[in-house]
Amino acid sequence: PLRDRFGIINRLEYYKQPELEFIVTRAAEILHIGIEPTGASEIARRSRGTPRIANRLLKRVRDFAQVIGDGVITQSIADDALQRLYIDKEGLDRIDRRVLECIIEKYDGGPVGIDTIAAAISEERDTIEDVYEPYDRIDRRVLECIIGNYDGGPVGIDTIAAAISEERDTIEDVYEPYLMQLGFLGRTPRGRVATKLAYEHLGISQTGK
pTM of the predicted model, to two decimals? Predict the structure, then answer.
């Protein structure tokens, strides 16, 4: 009913790879940072579809380029820098992995509630749902928690939060949306579930599923 009162109803989408590459290249130009197209592509690919993250990663990779390179961001420099920052090729960080591993390892792949996940990895529920279910170190911790502690789920978000020592709100708001967009995490009436893609990404054998 409230939505119907607005004259225009829009839906926000994540940015596409070419759009993010343009944003990274343009930001590098403004900041006087030398960058090759392959370097911009590597940063864009790990930016979770978000320009703000792309610009943040650009500045961090620039620092690495100035220290371990000649100041120009190449594909190899960007890859090395982002790996050192624990951001994998899908943009997942340690907590992303912990969420998925929590569901897979503790809850047999799910389903598991968001409160259980948050409790399991010691993150706020809202942080998991908004930031990580929207993939960095915490992303991986979430996945690893679900897979390693709960056999892939289902498992509640509070349990996951406790298992990986993250706040429930953090898991829900920061990590969960992105993990779901990637197809690594699913929601069911019984809780969160790690998908086949999550097992494959983490290199964990999906037994008994």
Answer: 0.72
